């Protein structure tokens, strides 16, 4: 177990580094440690999305380049009418 002074120093250093109060750093640590139901759902969704980018056979959908090409083709089609 860490000595309380070491913990305080760590929190204090983070507060100074980030320009936040000690209380804000402690609140963030509590929020990260004790996630609520909505946070757990959001984290699971984010993990699922990240898994799509790692797995070679997964497809996360159209890329920005694909969307840009489709938009350009649609505009070209409209101008040719």
Beginning-to-end CA distance, first to last residue: 74 Å
CA radius of gyration is 23 Å
Number of helices: 4
Order of helices and strands: HHHH
What coarse outline follows from CA principal-axis ratios?
Answer: elongated
Please, how many domains? 1
Query: What kind of sheet is the major sheet?
Result: none
Question: What structural class results from the helix and strand content?
Answer: mainly alpha
In the predicted model, the low-confidence regions spanning at least 5 consecutive residues are none
Your description of this structure?
- By secondary structure, this protein is an all-alpha fold.
- The protein has one domain.
- Helix content is 77%, strand content 0%.
- It has 4 helices and no strands.
- The longest helix is centred in the middle third of the chain and has 18 residues, at 37-54.
- The N and C termini lie far apart (74 Å).
- The model has no long low-confidence stretch (mean pLDDT 83).
Helix-strand layout with pairing:
Layout: H1 4-18, H2 22-33, H3 37-54, H4 64-80
Helix pairs in contact: 1-2
Compact overview of the structure:
77% of the residues lie in helices and 0% in strands. The chain contains four helices and no strands. The chain has helices at 4-18, 22-33, 37-54, 64-80.
Descriptive keywords:
81 residues, mainly alpha, 4 helices, 0% strand
